[in-house]
Amino acid sequence: MKIESEDHSAEFSILKAPDWINVIPLTPDDEIVLVEQYRYGIEQPTLELPGGMVDPGESPLETSKRELLEETGYAGDECINLGRVSSNPAIFTNYTHTYLIKNCKKVQEQQLDGNERINVHVMPLDDFLELVSRGAVHHSLVVAAVAKFLLWRR
Question: Less crowded by CB within 10 Å, the N or C end of the chain?
């Protein structure tokens, strides 16, 4: 995209992407279900929330339930929309939606895509929040989802 005015001219690269979702899945015991996967950009595994791309014709809520089930084998019975953030407004056109899904239980095995290698971790919510606080969990969209959750919880 090229922007021009009388005193300014610039070119920008803009990436059109579908909306994404992040899920904060909590068990009845106040544990959180997380995914660990290798991220090629930083060349290391990261601990993250389950999530993914919203498919055409699918709502962010439907995507949240689907991605949680596919990536972890867990499902819950109460879904709360915590809002959305701009994924990276400098270059992306999309938003990332965050859903809290409560009372999650394992109901099936993972159903991963061919390129997904995901390890599932379940830990006390407070332990996860401590990892975020220390910077051990550093994916920006995960940290944004945690902020949305903490604001909702207060």
Answer: C
- Domain 18-153 CATH assignment equals 3.40.50.720: no
Beta strand residue intervals within 26-147, DSSP E: 31-39, 44-48, 51-53, 74-75, 78-86, 95-102, 105-106, 119-124
Q: Are 137 and 143 in contact (CB under 8 A)?
A: yes
What is the CB-side half-sphere exposure of residue 117 using CA atoms within 13 A?
6
Q: Which tokens go with 70?
A: 């596919």
Look up the pTM and report it. Answer: 0.91
Q: Is 67 helix (H, G, I), strand (E, B) or coil?
A: helix
What does the alpha-carbon distance between residue 18 and residue 58 come to, in Å, rounded to a whole number?
11
Question: Which residues in the chain come in under a pLDDT of 70?
Answer: 1-5
Domain boundaries, the chain: 18-153
Q: Are strands 8-11 and 51-53 parallel, antiparallel or unpaired?
A: unpaired
Q: Would you state the structure tokens that stand for residue 117, as one six-digit string?
A: 């290698």
Structure tokens at 4: 């021009």
Can you give the pLDDT at residue 92? 95
